């Protein structure tokens, strides 16, 4: 069972070889009575209302250090998050594979109709065995098969937000949108989104079937989406969901210049965390520590509150297996910056140049991909 990047790393080694050689009527499910809170702590992803901070559950089947969390404790984190006002839970078929969706389905069962479940398709995974096959697979028939498995594992009759996890370079995005549209008409999917896609693919996808959300890495540590993705989302009215909003623990203050990652920890493959770059990049953590003391908040809370202050349609999904950390992360929604404080913080951030790549090349190749044109 693997988390997000560990799946990427294992799948990419297989996939690298393969890479080388309108309008939908409202479904009956969408018309069901929902009781999601409309408090100030909610935001909109397109037309989809969610809590201002979500919960990423990808590590609930396997942590960064490769240990396996206690299942009942993960259920408790999920249920406590709901009690704290979290209504947005993020998973994927690739996490586990499959196991994280099962854990989430079990955890939210008592309050399923009061929350939003997001999950993702797109990797080439055998739906019977969970075996990872080379490359990606967004063929329409495969998408529909994947969704049937998701519904079963999540113990639900619909997926509130279904993302394409990575763009399939062999399938036009119009065909992907068509498959999702069919699922919407059947009431099995309510909204859809894309993750780590190319800009033109996002434009084409939205023109074919309105996109509610984009999910990509974004944090103080990695600000790539600011160049093109966030402006396009704003123009098109698409919400943005940052994954890894705490920089795989870097922005929590847990990592220092002497940190070395154990065998199997994917962070060891990221050059931004090699000894030389890590020492240089600690200037960002030092800045966070200064603001942490100044605002009487944890470094993680500063990092999450900063994201929330970037745009009102940004909804971070910090992942954790710790009840205390979940509560701390969720409380970030109550931390505010004045206009002058935010300007000062942004100016300081702009003076820090992060060294090293966020992903190794053979994994990064799956991001910013443009789908082929439909003939």
Question: Could you explain the architecture of this structure?
Answer:
The protein is 38% helix and 13% strand. The protein is built from twelve helices and eleven strands. The radius of gyration is 19 Å and the shape is globular. This is IN2-2 protein. Residues 53-347 form the NADP-dependent oxidoreductase domain.
What percentage of residues falls in helices of 4 or more residues?
25-40%
Query: Quick one: overall form?
Result: globular
**Mean pLDDT over the full residue set:** 91
Q: Main sheet?
A: 7 strands, parallel
Radius of gyration: 19 Å
H and E string: HEEEHEHEEEHEHEHEHEHHHHH
Low-confidence stretches: 13-34
SSE class: alpha/beta
Task: Quote the distance from N terminus to C terminus.
Answer: 38 Å
Q: How large is the count of helical segments?
A: 12
GO molecular function: oxidoreductase activity
Pfam families: Aldo_ket_red
Keywords: Oxidoreductase, Signal
Protein name: IN2-2 protein
Please write out the topology.
Elements lengths: L3 H17 L21 E4 L2 E4 L3 E2 L14 H13 L4 E3 L8 H10 L7 E6 L1 E3 L6 E5 L3 H15 L4 E6 L8 H13 L3 E7 L3 H10 L4 E5 L11 H8 L2 E5 L31 H21 L3 H10 L14 H8 L8 H12 L10 H4 L11
Parallel strand pairs: 3-4, 4-5, 5-8, 8-9, 9-10, 10-11
Antiparallel strand pairs: 1-2, 6-7
């Amino acid at each position: 069972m693997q988390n997000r990047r560990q799946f990427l790393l294992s799948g990419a080694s297989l996939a690298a070889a393969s890479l080388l050689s309108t309008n939908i009527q409202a479904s009956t499910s969408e018309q069901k009575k929902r009781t999601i809170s409309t408090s100030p702590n909610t935001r909109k992803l397109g037309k989809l209302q969610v809590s201002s901070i979500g919960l990423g559950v990808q590590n609930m089947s396997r942590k960064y250090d490769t240990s396996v969390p206690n299942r009942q404790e993960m259920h408790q984190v999920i249920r406590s998050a709901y009690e704290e006002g979290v209504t947005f839970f993020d998973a994927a078929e690739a996490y586990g594979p499959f196991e994280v969706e099962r854990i989430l389905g079990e955890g939210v069962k008592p309050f399923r109709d009061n929350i939003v479940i997001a999950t993702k398709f797109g990797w080439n995974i055998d739906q019977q065995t969970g075996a990872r096959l080379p490359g990606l697979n967004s063929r329409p028939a495969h998408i529909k098969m994947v969704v049937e498995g998701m519904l079963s594992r999540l113990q639900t009759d619909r997926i509130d937000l279904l993302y394409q996890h990575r763009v399939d370079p062999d399938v036009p995005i119009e065909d992907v949108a068509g498959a999702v549209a069919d699922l919407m008409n059947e009431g099995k999917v309510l909204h859809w989104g894309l993750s780590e896609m190319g800009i033109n693919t996002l434009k084409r996808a939205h023109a074919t079937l309105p996109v509610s959300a984009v999910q990509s890495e974004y944090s103080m540590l990695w600000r790539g989406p600011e160049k093109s993705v966030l402006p396009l989302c704003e123009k098109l009215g698409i919400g943005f969901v940052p994954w890894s909003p705490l920089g795989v623990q870097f922005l929590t203050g847990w990592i220092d210049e002497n940190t070395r990652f154990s065998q199997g920890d994917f962070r060891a493959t990221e050059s931004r965390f090699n000894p030389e770059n890590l020492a240089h990049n600690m200037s960002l953590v030092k800045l966070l520590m200064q603001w942490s003391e100044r605002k009487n908040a944890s470094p993680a809370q500063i990092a999450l509150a900063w994201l929330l202050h970037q745009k009102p349609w940004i909804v971070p999904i910090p992942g954790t297996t710790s009840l205390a950390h979940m509560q701390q992360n969720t409380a970030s929604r109550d931390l505010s910056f004045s206009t002058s404080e935010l300007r000062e913080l942004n100016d300081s951030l702009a003076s820090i140049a992060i060294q090293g790549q966020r992903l190794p090349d053979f994994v990064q190749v799956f991001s910013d991909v443009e789908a082929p044109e439909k003939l």
